[in-house]
């Protein structure tokens, strides 16, 4: 891939958007590469993903305005669908995804970070949805995920004003889980990912499914979903080994994803 790299460290996969001269802005070529990389992740072997941007200045500075500036209505809608389909694919991967946000996360950059399960950022991170200042709306899920994450009032304020926020405010409103010095960000992401990867994969995946799908259900149906996913963990090797280790007061030898 020209604009997106992928590597694995043990059971952790690292996706890096690699267009630093353009602050990792998302054009069609970057989106195509990202789509191919996501499709190529072996979720049987990899238990957690980290998504980050190349360089120290920017995670993803947004969608490529030069490419968008001449789009027709139909082309604009198609470009929005392209980004939304890819971000939704990332969001619905069975394994957890951590966004390690270094620097600018504006427009499509903020939106792709919100497609991840967990967001941590560097102390120089900047988040924002500046689209109304360009005459458009957020088009890659920003109007939907931001409101779900930080509440409608704060989401409307950020989107209507097009005002950027720094890392400390992003933490205060719950957009990110933690802030680290830039030099420590990837180590923190890898440590968190490794901690997730150590836990029982079937259980982690079922937790992700229960949370993501349960948010769109009423409480009675959501609890029913949880019951099914809870029951689904039983009779697995991992459940039997996890409970046996607890009862024998020893550490789990290994979770085998079966």
Topology:
Elements: E1 4-9, E2 12-17, H1 28-40, E3 48-53, E4 58-60, H2 65-68, H3 73-91, E5 97-101, E6 104-106, H4 108-114, E7 118-122, E8 126-128, H5 142-150, H6 152-161, E9 165-166, H7 167-172, E10 178-180, H8 185-198, H9 201-214, H10 219-232, H11 237-247
Parallel strand pairs: 2-3, 3-5, 4-6, 5-7, 6-8, 7-10
Antiparallel strand pairs: 1-2, 8-9
Helix pairs in contact: 1-3, 4-5, 5-6, 9-10
Using brief descriptors, characterize the structure shown.
alpha/beta; 6-stranded mixed sheet; about 260 residues; single chain; 4-stranded mixed sheet
Record field, number of beta strands: 10
Q: Indicate the low-confidence ranges by residue numbers.
A: none
Radius of gyration: 19 Å
The helix-and-strand class reads: alpha/beta
Estimate the mean pLDDT confidence.
96
> What is the helix/strand order?
EEHEEHHEEHEEHHEHEHHHH
Strand content: 15-25%
Shape: globular
Strand order in the sheet with the most strands: 1-2-3-5-7-10
Q: Tally the helices: what do you get? A: 11
Helix content: 40-55%
Largest sheet: 6 strands, mixed
Q: Distance N terminus to C terminus?
A: 32 Å
Protein model, in words:
The chain has helices at residues 28-40, 65-68, 73-91, 108-114, 142-150, 152-161, 167-172, 185-198, 201-214, 219-232, 237-247; strands spanning 4-9, 12-17, 48-53, 58-60, 97-101, 104-106, 118-122, 126-128, 165-166, 178-180. It is of the alpha/beta class. The strands form 2 sheets. A 6-stranded mixed beta sheet has the order 1-2-3-5-7-10, sandwiched between helices. The protein has a 4-stranded mixed beta sheet with strand order 4-6-8-9. The radius of gyration is 19 Å and the shape is globular.
């Amino acid at each position: 891939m020209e604009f997106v790299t992928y590597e694995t460290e043990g059971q952790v996969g690292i996706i890096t958007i690699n267009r630093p001269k353009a602050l990792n802005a998302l054009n069609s070529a970057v989106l195509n590469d990202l789509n191919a990389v996501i499709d190529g992740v072996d979720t049987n072997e990899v238990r957690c993903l980290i998504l980050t941007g190349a360089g120290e200045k920017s995670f993803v500075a947004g969608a490529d305005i030069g490419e968008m500036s001449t789009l027709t209505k139909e082309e604009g809608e198609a470009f929005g669908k392209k980004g939304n389909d890819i971000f939704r694919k990332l969001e619905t991967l069975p394994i957890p995804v951590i966004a390690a946000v270094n620097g600018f996360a504006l427009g499509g950059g903020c939106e792709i970070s919100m497609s991840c399960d967990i967001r941590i950022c560097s102390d120089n991170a900047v988040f924002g949805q500046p689209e109304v200042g360009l005459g458009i709306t957020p088009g890659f899920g920003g109007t939907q995920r931001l409101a779900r994450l930080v509440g409608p009032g704060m989401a409307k304020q950020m989107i209507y004003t097009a005002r950027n926020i720094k890392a400390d405010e992003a933490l205060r409103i719950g957009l990110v889980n933690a802030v680290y010095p830039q030099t420590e960000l990837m180590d923190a992401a890898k440590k968190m990912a490794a901690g997730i990867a150590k836990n029982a994969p079937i259980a982690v995946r079922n937790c992700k499914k229960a949370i993501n799908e349960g948010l769109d259900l009423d409480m009675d149906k959501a609890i029913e979903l949880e019951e099914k996913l809870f029951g689904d963990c039983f009779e697995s090797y991992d459940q039997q080994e996890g409970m046996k280790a607890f009862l024998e007061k020893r550490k789990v030898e290994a979770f085998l994803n079966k």
